[in-house]
What we know:
The structure is a homodimer. Helix content of chain A is 47%, strand content 12%. The first copy, chain A, is an alpha+beta fold. The longest helix of chain A has 27 residues, at 289-315. The termini of chain A are far apart. Bound molecules: adenosine-5'-diphosphate (2 copies) and magnesium ion (2 copies). One magnesium ion (MG) is lined by residues 49, 51, 257, 259 of chain B. Chains A, B: Belongs to the methylthioribose kinase family. Chains A, B: It is an enzyme of class 2 (transferase). Chains A, B: Keywords: ATP-binding, Kinase, Nucleotide-binding, Transferase.
Amino acid sequence: MNAHAPPNAPxxxxxxxxxxxxxxxxLPDLAARLGGTRAxxxxxxxxxxxxxxxxxxxxxxxGVCVKQSLPHVRVDPSWKMPLDxxxxxASYLRDIHPLVPGLTTRCLHFDPDLFVLVVExxxxxxxxxxxxxxxxDWPRVVPDIATFVARATxxxxxxxEPFERVFDRHAVYARNQTLQRITLDLVLDDPYHxxxxxxxxxxxxxxxxxxxxxxxxxxRAVDALRLRFLTCPQALLHGDLHTGSIxxxxxxxxxxxxxxxxxxxxxxxxxxxxxxxxxxxxxDFSPDxxxxxxxxxxxxxxxxxxEFTRLWAAAHPTPSATSGPCAFFVPDADGASPGxxxxxxxxxxxxxxxxxxxxxxxxxxxxxxxDFDVIPTHDxxxxxxxxxxxxxxxxxxxxxxxxxxxxxxxALVREDVKGF
Amino acid sequence: MNAHAPPNAPxxxxxxxxxxxxxxxxLPDLAARLGGTRAxxxxxxxxxxxxxxxxxxxxxxxGVCVKQSLPHVRVDPSWKMPLDxxxxxASYLRDIHPLVPGLTTRCLHFDPDLFVLVVExxxxxxxxxxxxxxxxDWPRVVPDIATFVARATxxxxxxxEPFERVFDRHAVYARNQTLQRITLDLVLDDPYHxxxxxxxxxxxxxxxxxxxxxxxxxxRAVDALRLRFLTCPQALLHGDLHTGSIxxxxxxxxxxxxxxxxxxxxxxxxxxxxxxxxxxxxxDFSPDxxxxxxxxxxxxxxxxxxEFTRLWAAAHPTPSATSGPCAFFVPDADGASPGxxxxxxxxxxxxxxxxxxxxxxxxxxxxxxxDFDVIPTHDxxxxxxxxxxxxxxxxxxxxxxxxxxxxxxxALVREDVKGF
Lengths: 420, 420
Ligand SMILES: Nc1ncnc2c1ncn2[C@@H]1O[C@H](COP(=O)(O)OP(=O)(O)O)[C@@H](O)[C@H]1O
Ligand SMILES: Nc1ncnc2c1ncn2[C@@H]1O[C@H](COP(=O)(O)OP(=O)(O)O)[C@@H](O)[C@H]1O
Ligand SMILES: [Mg+2]
Ligand SMILES: [Mg+2]
C-alpha cells in the first residue's frame, strides 16, 4: 500500500474514498462537524483540476472538503511532482483567512504525513468559470474578489506588518518552488517562444502569435513582468486567481485552491482575475458584452483601490510627521499622498500586463480554459481567439502607458460594434 | 563557564584568547594552515566594530582571523542580540566567494555551536576608512569594489541563476532579521523623525535636519527607498558596504564583515559605498577634493556598469529570439537592450538615494563615522556636516531625476570653490 510513498514522505499513501472516511473518523473535531456516525457519511469525488484529488464528505450535521496531493500531476501520472503543495495551500489559508474570513474557506486540518488538507465544504457553490459559461450574472463576485485581493495583500505586506513577520513568511513560501516553476514556465515564458507544451488548433493564429513574439515592445514588457514576478514581493499572492479558483453563489463568493501562494507583485493576482474576465468576454457574443466587461473591470479596479486605500489610511489614521517602518507615504494634512498614488498606479500597470499574459497563455500555452468551448463553430472560435490575442498584444505593446481602465480596456467595447 | 549561554545555543560560550587557540588546535586543517605547534602561535584582538569579538592568529606558516558573535552588542552588553550573525556572514562568504575570490576572504570554518567564523587573515591590510583618513591614495579600491558589487550581485540574481537557487537563498537570508531591523531603523528610519538614538552636537545643524524631515519630496523619496529595501530582492547584498567593511593595500582590496547580508536592491550596496566616499570628501579640505570625489564616483559607476553589463551579455552570448527565465532583455541584433538599460538606470537611482540616506544617518543618526574627526575645529566640523547634509537633502529632493553621475554629484565640485 505504501509502495509509492516518496522517500521523503515515508508515511504517505494516496487515500481512496473509504480511506478518507477512516481518516476523518479519526479526527474528533471533524467527525463532530460532520455529525452522526461514519456510516451516515457520504463521499464523492469532485476533482476537476489538474493536480490533486478532491472529495466532498457530507454528514447529518455538515460537510467538509478533503484535498490530497498526489506524487504526480493528477491528469498525467508520468509528470512527477512533490507532495508539498497542500502544505502551501494550508499555510496560505492560515495566513489569509483571518483577513478575509467570509471570502475563502477555513483550514480545518492539515496532515503533514499524508498531505491532506481539510476545509469547509462549499457544496452549494458553483465554480465561477462554469457558472459564467452557463450564463449566470452574479454581480457580487467581481467586487468580492477585489475586496479579497485588497485585504489579503495589504494584510500580508510590510505596509501593515513588521517586516519580521513578512520575512518569516518569505522563508516559508520561497520553498513553494514546484508550482512557481509552473507559473514561470507556463504563464510567463513558454508562450513567448517555441515550446512543445504550447498548442493551438488553427494556423490562422500563427500570424498574431508571431507578432507577439517578435514585437520588441511586447518582448520587453514580457521580460519586465517576468522579472517583476520574481523580484517584487509586495504581498502574499494567491498565485492562481482565475475564475476556476472561485466558487460562488449569487450572494456568496469564496476563493479556493491557494496552492500557488507566493510573495509577488499584487498586480499579478489582479491581472490573472481580470484576464479571465476578458477571456470570457471574447467568448460571449451577446450585444454589449464588451461594455459590460469594461464596466466589470472598472468595478474590480475601483473596489480594489477603495479598499486598499481605506486599509492603508486606517493603518495610520492621523496625518503626522511620523515616519516608521509601517507608515509609508503618510498623507499630508490635506489627505494627499502622491507616494500611495504611485504605488497603486504601479499595481494597475502590473494588472494590465499580467492580464495580457494570462489571456495569451490560455490561448496558445499549455493550459487552455473552457470559455471558448461555448462558441459553436471552429471558425468562430478561431476568430474570437485571434481577437483576444490581438487585444492582449495591444495591452503589452503599450504597457505602462495607459493609466486607467477606460484607456487600457476600452478596445473591448469596440469589439461590440464588429457585430458578431 | 556556560552561565551566559543563550537557551537556544546551549553549547555556546564566549572564547577568550587561550580558548581561541585551543579551538583552532582542535581543527587539523586550520592548525596546518597556521603551521608549527600551538606554542608557536600568537594571538591578538583586533575588534574595532560594534558587534563582535575578532582576533588574528599567526603561526609559522600563515594566519587566520577568528570572529565570534556575542549574545549582545560588543560595545553595549545591555543591548542583547542573538548569536546568528556569524552564521549569516559565513553563508554570505560561501555564496559569494566563488564569484569574487580575490575580492573577499574565504570562509575556512564555521562552528554553529560557538558561532565562530574563521577566515583568511588580512593582517597586512588596513581598514580602508582608516587608510583614507591617514591620507592614502589607493586607486585600485574604487574599481575593485565596483567589480565586487557587480559580480556578487549579478551572480546571486535571477539574471544568472534558476530562480530555485535564488529562492533557496531567500529562505536563508529572510532569517537575518536582527541586523535587517538595525538597517531599517538606524539607516532608513530613525534619522527622519525624533528618536533618542539620533544625535548631533551642534544646534546649527537643526535647520537642515528640519528641512530634510519636512520636505514632502524628501519624505516621499525616503519612504520609497525604505519600501524598496524591503520589497525589491534583486540580488544578495553585502548590506553594510561602507569604507570600514573594506580592508586594502595599495594593490589588493578585500570586502569583510558580510553579517548584514540580505536580498535587496543592488543600488543599496552601491549607495552605501558611494555615500562613504562623499562623507570622506566633506571632511577633506584639500583643493580639488570635490572634483576627485566626483571622478571616483564616476569610476565606481562606470566600472560597475561595464562589469554588470559584461556579465549579463556573457550569460546570453548570442542575440536570439529565445526568451527564458534567465534570458531577460536579450539584446536585439544591433546589441541594444532598452530593458537592460532601464534596469541599470534603476540601480543608479537607488544608488543615489541610498547614498544620501547613508550620509544623513552618519551625521545625525546613531552611528557616526570617524571621517570628520580629522577636521581640527568644532566650527569647521559643523560647517562641513551642514554642507554634507544639504548635499544629501538635494539628492533626495531631486531623487530619480538626475540620470548620470555628473548631474547627480556635480554639486560636490562646486564645494571646491567655496574655499575652505
Ligand atoms: N471547499 C470546497 N467545497 C466543495 N467543492 C470544492 C471545494 N474546493 C474545491 N472543490 C471542488 O473541487 C475542484 C478541485 O479543487 P481545486 O482546489 O481547484 O483542486 P486542484 O488544485 O486540483 O485544481 C474544484 O474545481 C471544485 O469543483
Ligand atoms: N580577515 C581579517 N584579517 C585581519 N583583520 C581583520 C579581518 N577581518 C576583520 N579584521 C579586523 O577586525 C575588525 C572588526 O572586524 P569586523 O568584521 O568589521 O567586525 P564587526 O562585525 O564586529 O564590525 C576590522 O575592522 C579589522 O580591523
Ligand atoms: Mg490547484
Ligand atoms: Mg560588522
